[in-house]
Amino acid sequence: MNRLPAMLSPELFIHRSFFVDVLSSFITSAKFTRHEFDEYVAPLVAAETEAATLDPAAHAIDVAHTLAFRSGLGSSLFAPAHNSITAADIKSFASASFTKGNIAVVGTGIDQGTLSKLVEQAFASAGASSAASAPASKYFGGETRLEGHGGPETVFIGFGSTGATADLAALAAHLSPSPSVKWSKGLSPLSSVPEGTSVQIVYLPYSDATLFGLLVQGSTPASVKEAGKVAVSALKAAAQGIKEEELKSAISKAKFASANAADSREGVIAALGSKVRLYPSIFISAFVY
Q1: Is residue 14 helix, strand or coil?
Q2: Among 11, 55, 189, 231, which is most buried by a count of CB atoms within 10 Å?
Q3: Using CA atoms, how far apart are residues 230 and 216, in angstroms rounded to an integer?
Q4: Are residues 254 and 281 in the same domain?
Q5: Is residue 140, in this structure, part of any structural domain at all?
Q6: What domain range is 96 assigned to?
Q7: Do 170 and 229 fall within a single domain?
């Protein structure tokens, strides 16, 4: 009989083992049947793609990735409206990619040794192969204009970076119009945008690159243009240098935002997922309490 970790009852061990087995079964035992793909998966994917296209903010950020990085990080998260992918294609991809070398498992609220043992048992039947490789991200940049389909007028102004992201995190905190104190208007240089418009900071750090930008939205092209000028001026002014007090405040705000994000499940996934350099192909968040 295997010895259970200290302070871990047999009932709790079995409880956690069950959920790890459930998670792993989606990788090791998935059937990828044709009828499920045709009747459920394909329509759902098409609906998600259409919804993203009709959301100006989501569509702008998706296109911004393509312009910034082209391939890799530049690949859209949404499937084309018309594609030739079949259930057989998916099954073939899964067989080649869902292997031990391409799987990362993250657990919270569980002893590392216990999780390692459970994962080793659960993925014993998974194929063995070396980790998939991917080229380092490169920044290209570009400009495009797309016809909107309803919603507010939207402009994304930004850039990509393949270096460290600490400076960009502080820059995002400095420019963010979200006040640090509730009911306060805040001291952001973006707080002076015209009424009826909004500017959101887009700061998306990945394993080896970052997308940074300003998402400007408003009801009319003229108002968005004016708000865009304010946003660009604020960005240029910050790039030229800010006061020491403002810098310290931005760094503190960035640290707080990072720590606060880690309190949520989504924040932990985002923080740890960005450390996985485009591979492993599978990133499983095993939150076992």
Answers
A1: helix
A2: 231
A3: 10
A4: no
A5: no
A6: 10-133+276-287
A7: yes
Do residues 126 and 99 lie in contact, with contact meaning Cβ atoms separated by under 8 Å? yes
In degrees and rounded to multiples of 5, residue 70 shows phi and psi of 60, -75
Cβ-Cβ contacts under 8 Å for 136 (sequence gap 6 or more): 162, 208
Residues 60 and 115 in one domain: yes
> What's the pTM?
0.79
pLDDT band at 157 (very low <50, low <70, confident <90, very high): very high
Q: Report the alpha-carbon distance of residue 29 to residue 289 in Å, rounded.
A: 24
Q: Locate all alpha helices (DSSP H) within the chain, ordered by sequence.
A: 10-28, 34-36, 42-54, 56-69, 87-97, 112-122, 166-175, 221-240, 244-261, 265-273
- Cα 203 to chain centroid distance, Å, stands at 10
**Are 15 and 124 in the same domain?**
yes
- Mean per-residue pLDDT for 155-166? 85
The two tokens of residue 272 are 């740890």
Q: Is residue 143 part of a domain?
A: no
Residue 146: phi and psi, rounded to 5, are -125, 145
Query: Would 271 be classed as within a structural domain?
Result: no
- What is the phi-psi region of residue 51: left when phi exceeds 0, alpha when psi lies from -120 to 50, beta otherwise? alpha
CATH number of residue 228's parent domain: 3.30.830.10
Task: Count CB-CB contacts under 10 A for residue 279.
Answer: 16
Same domain? For 101 and 29 the reply is yes
Asked if residue 148 belongs to a domain, the reply is: no
Query: Partners of 201 in the beta sheet?
Result: 214
Instruction: State the burial class of residue 130 (Cβ atoms within 10 Å of its Cβ: 0-12, 13-18, 19+).
Output: exposed
Nearest to 213 by CA among 71, 76, 60, 74: 60
